[in-house]
Each structure stands twice: as C-alpha cells, then as structure tokens.
UniProtKB/TrEMBL annotation:
It comes from the Eukaryota. InterPro entries: Defensin_plant (IPR008176), Knottins (IPR003614), Scorpion_toxin-like_sf (IPR036574). GO terms for biological process: defense response. It comes from Oryza barthii. SMART domains: Knot1. Residues 30-75 form the Knottins-like domain. This is Knottins-like domain-containing protein.
Length: 75
C-alpha cells in the first residue's frame, strides 16, 4: 500500500505531461477568395502571391483545373 502512494504523484505528473504534449495550439482560420486583379491562368506562384499582396491579402495559391489565383486572408 505504501509503494502505491509513492508512485501516485509520479503517475499523475506523467499523465499531465502526456496530455499537454498532445494538445495542439489553436490556429486562425483562413479564408480564400479569387483575385480580382489577376488575369489569365495562374502558372507561376510568385506572380499570384505578388498580386494578392498588392490587394491586401496575406498569401495565395494557384488552384483548380482552370489554375485560378486564390488569395488567402484570416477570417
């Protein structure tokens, strides 16, 4: 009985460490919208990124079958 009392705090600390490492930090949601200034097919990511940043967005991706320039921002 005495040995179980010695191990209980160690087990409790170990359990807390395991649960703390499993929790991921919350991330902000990102929304996408098609660029209003980009024209043509989006073939070069850097061009799309530059246009989206001039429109005030934080990033971009070339997406879809038609290769549209999609700008990203936090929702």
């Amino acid at each position: 009985m005495e040995s179980s009392r010695k191990f209980f705090p160690a087990i409790a600390v170990l359990l807390l460490l395991v649960t703390a490492t499993e929790m991921a930090p919350a991330q902000a949601r990102e929304c996408e919208t098609e660029s209003s200034k980009f024209s043509g097919m989006c073939m070069i990511q850097a061009n799309c990124d530059h246009i989206c940043k001039t429109e005030g967005f934080m990033g971009s991706d070339c997406r879809g079958f038609r290769r549209r320039c999609m700008c990203r921002t936090q929702c």
